[in-house]
Design goal:
By secondary structure, this protein is an all-alpha fold. It has 5 helices and no strands. The chain has one domain.
């Protein structure tokens, strides 16, 4: 994928997995998380209201639900949360491109080996292809960190 975009054009693609969050806008991440949380709370609130109506307990109980809005929407995410969001953003980008590539290989009836930290088992299973998922485990944590902190590092 890196051969199609320069580091200047797409810094998220070129960032290491551990540093991908640094390519994201913390304000945008905070706003997106707040919006997602508000949507989730609205869904929970609606389902609670339906349940209360069917139970016939509309006004017999006081509403003890608390509002999750306020300062939470403007707080910047922690570095750990930014790293997680960066990983998710990278994964989404990689999976979208990989989906198109796998579809093309499948149409040409070509076999392929795909590997990478962003490859999820859910994605592989959803492709309805004949797959053989493997997991490789590196015992030496220093080698693991070296490999994934710089995407261009080759360690044997």
């Amino acid at each position: 994928m890196r051969s199609f975009a320069s580091e200047k054009e797409n810094p998220l693609l070129w960032a290491s997995t551990y540093h991908a969050g640094e390519c994201l806008d913390p304000v945008a991440v905070a706003e997106a998380k707040a919006k997602k949380k508000a949507t989730k709370m609205a869904g929970v609130s609606q389902s609670l209201t339906k349940d209360e109506a069917t139970d016939g307990q509309n006004s017999s109980k006081p509403d003890t639900r608390t509002s999750e809005t306020g300062s939470c929407a403007t707080e910047h995410p922690s570095p750990k949360q930014m790293a997680i969001e960066g990983y998710k953003a990278q994964s989404e980008m990689v999976i979208d491109s990989l989906d198109r590539l796998i579809t093309a290989w499948e149409e040409r009836k070509q076999s392929v080996v795909v590997e990478g930290v962003h490859l999820s088992l859910n994605f592989v299973v959803c492709q309805n292809l004949i797959t053989c998922p493997l997991l490789f485990f590196r015992i030496d944590v220093n080698i693991y960190i070296a490999v994934f902190s710089n995407p261009l590092t080759i360690i044997t």
